[in-house]
## 1
Amino acid sequence: MKRRAFAICVASACAFGPALAVNPDEKLADPTLEARALALSREIRCVVCQNQSIDDSNAPLAADMRVIVRERIAAGDGDAEVKNFLVSRYGNFVLLRPPMRADTWFLWFGPALFLIAGAAGFAAYLRRPAIPASQAVPELSADERRRLEELERRGGA
């Protein structure tokens, strides 16, 4: 029963979450400009959610960013100018596809480096040497063995 309720909640969130992000009052009257705004807002990251575009996010800051995009487009800015405006305000992180530059290499190559480091650590763990003989548990002496057998007969007391 819990699994079914969880599945319904997840399906509802996936089905209705992104569809409700852009409010009708945010839309531009000109369909061409609105199409440009939608295309741009799909390329801009929500700085609150960080894993969604501002087009998909319901965060208040994402709504503000969508309004900024539409205001800049309505003012006559080109796509590059709108992106540059947002980058000047929030940094390259605001772009879902940041430019390939020295200051964004970590964004591009960081995940691969973490994967390689994790694989190397796992390989080192698997290749670790066996316990040396000097650290192995020594054999029981005859007195220790006799004492163990006696304790086992008495029930471990």
## 2
Amino acid sequence: MVSLICGHNGSGKTRKMIEMANSEIAKVQGKMVFIEANNKHIYDLDHNIRYINTKEYGLTNEEQFHGFVCGLLATDYDIEMVFIDGLYKITDACNEEKSKIIVNRLEQLAAKFDVKFVLSLNFDVEDISDSMREKVYA
């Protein structure tokens, strides 16, 4: 399952994701991962959440990001939940079309490996297609 948190810069997406991750960590049976493009929020998260700064791995586009996520899931079968903050900073997905491709790929991984993905997109809910809008976390 993929859930989206939408809004423009400064709308509170990251804060919402951090709060979600910190509250969900007590409920998950497996492991949780929080991915973003810097170390800015490393100390805001519970210490049981694995924090990954993608800039340390040189990711620049959606192909590299997909491979990275596949590798992450392949090396740890216990991952139950993955938060991805600032997709546009991690990849070159700065429009809905590219974001949709990534979301569809994550949906396939979620179904195959029973992982829940939560990711932030820099779009208002009104600006995305109906198929993407169905995935918006309320």
